[in-house]
Amino acid sequence: MYRISTADFAALALVFLVSCVTDQEEEEGLVGVAPNELEYLNALNPNALNPNALNPNALSPNALSLGALSPSALSPAALSAIQDPGAAGDLSRQLLSYVVGCALTPAQSFRFSWTDGAGTVRHEVYWGLIGLVPSWVDKPLGQIDQQWISACLASRTNWYGVSVTISSRASHPAIDKTDSPELTIYTRMEGAFWGNLFAPSPYLNACYNAANRGHARSLARECAAGHLDASGAVQECGTIRILGSCDSYCLPLNVRGMYYPSCVNNLTGSPDATTRVITVFLP
Questions:
Q1: pLDDT in tens, 21-52
Q2: Is residue 1 domain-resident?
Q3: Are 250 and 169 within 8 A, CB to CB?
Q4: How far apart are CA 11 and CA 149, in angstroms?
Q5: Which residues span the domain enclosing 12?
Q6: Helices and strands counted in the chain (H then E)
């Protein structure tokens, strides 16, 4: 797994911001050669329905920082990481693109250039999408915002690295889908995600809906359900720990918005609950 220092991601954290809105759809590319411009599927609502193709190997706690997303914070090491034409650079760029998508709005973006393995200069533009923490461009992340970004990254991680359109829901205003028609289209609850990649001991948790584990796997969504290897044993997605059934770890679903209002990290001792939980539904 490729890692850069925590200090360096103060860098990796977003260089040039512009105001522009565009509909986009993500496409995969070859290692060392840039994929087509990152694009997002905005089928029903760009704030909630988004592809999840984040590779578990790109979830590196050491690549994250609490600092403000300032262009002046980009260090030579961080710039080198996102300009690397090899596999390590692919992971760094992928993580950065998803951080931007989770944190910023469609009116914000991150731009930089790099040269791929074929010697072609690539001009990257990573657009915001969900808008969980648009203020990150001006100030450091607080603990609440850390948890929202972490939950978002976990919810969009995919074992296979393929795009699957999902309905992401939470108490956060950006994805609170209370009484939305979306609730009648995406009706199969997959599970929920929460954690904090910025904590001294970074962690990500997931829980599943036991009734829909098979359905989730059939749609290539396995980071809550668990990936089954050849022997039938459950494999987790990188650092995302599967705790068990959401019925055991979370308060009942909010009926109008269809999301878990709170989940706990353990069932014994101190519950260590959080309200920064993203619940995912599938069609």
A1: 223 333 333 333 333 222 233 333 333 346 67
A2: no
A3: no
A4: 17
A5: 6-141
A6: 6, 12
